[in-house]
Amino acid sequence: MNIITEYPLWLSVFCILAGIAYAAILYFRDKRLAEINKWLIRLMAFFRFIVITLLSFLLLSPLLKSIVREVEKPVIIIAQDNSESIVVGKDSNFYRNEYKQKMNALIEKLSDKYEVRSYSFADQIKEAYRMDSIQFNEKQTDISSLFEELETRYSNRNVGAVILATDGIYNKGSNPIYSTAKFKNTIYTIALGDTTVKKDIVLSKVEHNRLAYLGNQFPLEVVINAKQFKGKSSVLSISKAGVKVFSQSLSFNSDTYTVTVPVLLDAKEIGLQKYSVVVSPIADEMTIANNSKDIFIDVLDARQKILILSEAPHPDIAAIKQSIEANQNYEVSSFIIDDFNEALKKYNLVILYQLPSLKNNATKIITELKTGNIPFWIFSGANSVLKKDLSGATPSPKTNEVEPLIEQNFPLFTISDDFKNAVKDFPAAIAPYGTFQSDNSSNVLLYQRIGIVDTKTPLMSFNQANETKSALFAGEGIWKWRLQDYAAHGNHLVFDEFISKTVQYLSVKVDKSFFRIITKNNFFENEVIEMEAEVYNESYELINTSDVEMVIINSENKRFPFSFSKTTNAYRLNAGMLPVGDYKFEAKVKVGEKNYVQKGSFSITALKVELNNTVADHQLLFGLAQNHSGELIYPTDIDKLADKLNAREDIKSVSYSEKKLNDLISLKWIFFLLLALLSIEWFMRKRNGAY
Known about the structure:
Strand order of the largest sheet: 17-16-18-19-24-23-22-20-21
Distance between the termini: 42 Å
Strand content: 35-45%
Number of helices: 15
Helix content: 10-25%
Radius of gyration: 41 Å
Oligomer: single chain
């Protein structure tokens, strides 16, 4: 320990001189002190010398430099698998009782010499000071994330060893053999579980799409594993609301039999539909909990209605209609305008082919499109006469042959490389003669190339006036594009992409509601129920001045009230975890004098992945231990593990030396010393009449 200063240390001589000078002037030149004993004057002068010298020295910003030595015990980390698969077999009572006692005894024995930190892992990584908190009830096992977390928490600590107690079964994350390749600490593994292959039928997977559309069929793919049931049979059945919608017999030809069953179901009802997939059990199965799964399909009535109006038949109309109908989610109606007398509001998109024309100005149609905010797509041609407010120009009756030129930075939707490459070879379209300028708000997808000249005249452009989307194709003859696509690729996929993406962009409706609840339709039982809410004012700006309340209702009609918390300009709700089941919710908010309500539903599904594989993987645990200078231990030998760790010479305490700098002025004893010296000096002067 020593003292250093920010200024040169030789300046401390002046501090001493200042103390001597101040004391001398105060006590040896004052004639009033002549009658006081000389030893008393010298003592008071000494006190004043010490005070002035110390105060002057503190002006040099002195620092107290010290070296502190600390000894860190080795850290022994115990990581206990808390997943369901540990207690599936016949030894479940052992793991729930005697095993916990053995692990607690190990922790106490190691604590005498080491710093012991114990954790449970599966769904989450939690500290577990004793094994009594382990319930073996979590739904997924992720061993790789455990080691990532330990690497983060203990990267600069003296870790002696990691004791990993698990059955080696993981169903989330990567293979721990590879994920721990850079982990530098010793790993001991305690091999839990049973490696015996037991009789069991496992409904391991049901692959399906999250969405389906009303009136369509949607596919499922069911994967079933049967173990030790050679020569036996079972039945796969799928039901909805208690009604069986699919059934198929299964015969198992070997003791390790896997079968994949493709299924097609009809989407007959709108909304979130729950289907139960079940494989009938066979006698002597280890467990039937993994014989069933519930899946959820959100059925949407999203079939878009498309109307094509024209003055006369044209090959382009057939090409457009065939491409749109390639997508089952679109329903196309085609009319000659003179034969059409329906309301336009039931259609999601109207295609006007060469309308307005010289013979029909389509005034009524155009007015209804604008007032109803109905999106439309205009194809011009030799017979069309476009008004400026629809297209930006009035074409000449003369025409040009123009080739399409792609705009590489088109922003409204993605264009595939296949389309970008194919469009170069598309035949020329017939476009009205003249130079046309698109509005500043327009987005151009295709420009016109006339001969070898690339122009900035739009061939295909998009616009939006208020809330009405529109598109203009300034030409005709795209039926040739469809034929060219087939000649080059043997299909119409590129041409269909051009049509379908345009139709999708124009026909999609923007949600303009003032109150929205954003959430998933289905959660697993180990997931936290999280929702978000958005509230808009009349100017359609996000606000969060009002409170959003929600009631969640379970299948027994019990109501659970919640309040959303406010974020920067929206709302968020964390409802925690809820039991497996079907739920409804009703959310309310009041903005000014208006009340908004949103209703919905969600389901919580049981997660059974831990039961898909119940055969312990001790080979993986042996590999982990061998790769990290450890050893595989069985539960019967847990009491020997402490001795094995104590016998290792590489697990020992580490001594650290640390330099510390403290401001001398921050030491409290200096303040009290100065205060004491000044107080004693004042008292002595006062008592002897020096004041």
